[in-house]
Amino acid sequence: MEENNQNQQEEQVETVSKAEYDVILAERDDLLQYKPKELSEEEKVFQTKQEAFNKQVLEFAIKEAGLSDFADFIQNQEEIEAFKGLVKKIEDKVKKDLAYKPENHKQTDEYSQFEQKGDTKGMIGSKLASLFK
Length: 133
Description:
Elements: H1 2-32, H2 41-65, H3 77-98, H4 110-117, H5 120-131
């Protein structure tokens, strides 16, 4: 009797486990559609070669643009144009900042020269001369 009872409990456990298993199996089958497709060896080799080629093209474009110093920061073709513009702006600003800037250079006209000397007749004369030019 005890054996019979034990067998019956095991069967119940198995049927419950089987039902749960079926639910889990159905759920797994639904999720399998989202699993990425496994690549064959040929596809893996092709993908590797494609990535290497794209990297070489990008490196060549960076060198062509003269941005070899910034190669670590550039990830794609669009960034090359952005860096070109940025480098051009920085270069223009540096050129402007380093350009010669006279400090005490004032254009002296005839009136200013007479004014420095304190010659009022010369100042009036230069004003009248500029009126009749």
